[in-house]
Amino acid sequence: MGSYGMLARRALLTENPVMVQIQELIRGVKDCVSLAQGVVYWQPPKKALEKVQELVWEPSISRYGADEGLPELREALLRDENKLHKSSVMVTAGANQAFVNIVLTLCDAGDSVVMFAPYYFNSYMSFQMTGVTNILVGPGDPKTLHPDAEWLERTLRDTKPTPKLVTVVNPGNPSGTYIPQPLLQRISDICKNAGCWLVVDNTYEYFMYDGRKHVCVEDNHIVNIFSFSKAYGMMGWRVGYIAYPSEVEGLAAQLLKVQDNIPICASIISQHLALHSLEMGSNWVTEQVKDLIKNRELVLDALSPLGKDAVKGGEGAIYLWAKLPDGYHDDFEVVRWLARKHGVVLIPGCSSGCPGHVRISFGGLVEDQCRVATERLKRGFEQLVNEGMVP
Ligand SMILES: Cc1ncc(COP(=O)(O)O)c(C=O)c1O
């Protein structure tokens, strides 16, 4: 025992989590500000927190609950949110666990699946660690980063056996790109015609800018994933949910097997907080999100030394996506240099399948801190462009 050879290839062959590497980097740098992690700076609604404070002594809080989630929360989610009329809900310990549930329920080891670059690194890892290692990564439009529907149609037609599942994040992580409704519908139609699942991660459904409105698609080949983490500032409470088609025979039963063996149920107190947060209404969330517009402007200004064409996304979510100047293919090296030389941290694009790029998050800092971070970032990029990575 104790030998590396005794560890599962499933785990060994999975990428290292980029956030863990970035946290290590941050620990090693004095006075570092982070535009790296995908978080928001706010806490859950005060009223909702006060209500759960009273609930802690209630015996049911300390017991297991129904695997699928608190009935009153599930009902509220179907009634109030997203107008998904043909779906059932399973509450999970966050959207990441929701995704793992879905992969374990829909995919067998050896199946092929489809994602689009730049992709969400945790989804990629979820495939890898469940043996779904034939991951076909499709291109985005060079200007908009929208998934290339023509490529998808060709790939689903020509790949045998047909890929099992296509997944998109809307609006996107790491790019913040929003897939407009007609394109999302087209992707859905292509999947349906090919007999392939479509999994849409709607973690940032309320994070939409410039008058855009988030829309979900629903059908018997579609599974939608949602999260309370960002919208209600509930990252540490771990609540998300799956909305899956009610009419598909056996799906609920198979999902339950997975759920019963991972969390059994999402934390009960957290589900109560989610329910009370929902009672505040989605307006509460959009009010918080409005404040991020200023942060996004600050980041856009910090990215200006890279040139206008280098910057993409930011239509939704909490991210902008930027191409580094030619010659900087090793984006992790640039990220380390920015941290050590300029005291600001980003996420390297290689973790999303796109070396030579970086992801910048504008959700985690209040405006004053964001200003500090973006001033450093702008100085860093000016130096990178004019002088290179001077030590
Ligand atoms: C697209 C996407 N999905 C899922 C998650 C994970 O969310 P949760 O905290 O609900 O697990 C994140 C978090 O960054 C995300 O960006």
From TrEMBL:
Keywords from the named record: Aminotransferase, Pyridoxal phosphate, Transferase
Record's keyword annotation contains Transferase: yes
Gene3D superfamilies assigned: Type I PLP-dependent aspartate aminotransferase-like (Major domain)
Occurrences of domain Aminotransferase class I/classII large (ranges): 31-377
InterPro entries tied to this protein: Aminotransferase_I/II_large, AspAT/PAT-like, NHTrfase_class1_PyrdxlP-BS, PyrdxlP-dep_Trfase, PyrdxlP-dep_Trfase_major
Reported cofactor(s): pyridoxal 5'-phosphate
One Pfam family named in its UniProt record: Aminotran_1_2
PANTHER family: AMINOTRANSFERASE CLASS I_CLASSII DOMAIN-CONTAINING PROTEIN (PTHR46383:SF5), ASPARTATE AMINOTRANSFERASE (PTHR46383)
Similarity comment text for this entry: Belongs to the class-I pyridoxal-phosphate-dependent aminotransferase family.
Protein name per the record: Aminotransferase class I/classII large domain-containing protein
Source lineage: Eukaryota, Viridiplantae, Streptophyta, Embryophyta, Tracheophyta
